[in-house]
Amino acid sequence: MNGEIKVQEFIDEIQEENYATEVLMIKLADLKPETIQATLEQFLSRFMVQVQEHNLIHLELVVDDSEVLTKIVLESGVINLPYANTKVVDNFFEELTQNVPLQINLIIEAETLNASGLHIDTLAAVNEYPKQATQIVSNMMEITQKSLQAIEENASVVEKVEV
User: Fold this and answer.
1) Banded pLDDT at 156 (limits 50, 70, 90)
2) CA of 107: how far to CAs of 49, 55, 156, 161, 162, in Å?
3) HEC string of 80-117?
4) Which residue ranges make up each domain of the chain?
5) Which residues are registered as beta bridge partners of 22?
6) How far apart are CA 75 and CA 20, in angstroms?
7) What per-residue confidence (pLDDT) applies to 159?
8) Cα 6 to the chain's mean position, in Å?
């Protein structure tokens, strides 16, 4: 793996579902302030092992004991769009045969997160790992904690409205 891929190759591979997928179940306790760093470090490390082996990967943590179904996803991509939106990737590139860096995208999904139920951030290029691992995990923690807080707050507002 050299950390790059041609845009058209990326689009084709994702549309043909030719990428590795893994879903892991975790508990809310794994995301508490005293445990979140270790949880996300392990998640990122597992993701990078998969990227080394497969290049394209969708690795998902499902919080199976939260009131609102919550997913924390890492995907290797060429732009900050989830694999589900690959059909529009070509709109962002003039030349589909160009090599572009593979990126680490963090996606948080939950019905009460925001209007779209989704938040996505590009954390770094995959070839910046392990050199930037500490910064990547720090960014993951900040984004995840803010997202979990929004999910919880918005869920309580929804509950009050429904009552």
Assistant:
1) confident
2) 19, 18, 22, 27, 28
3) CCCHHHHHHHHHHCCCCCCEEECEEEEEEEECCCCCCC
4) 4-162
5) 59
6) 10
7) 63
8) 21
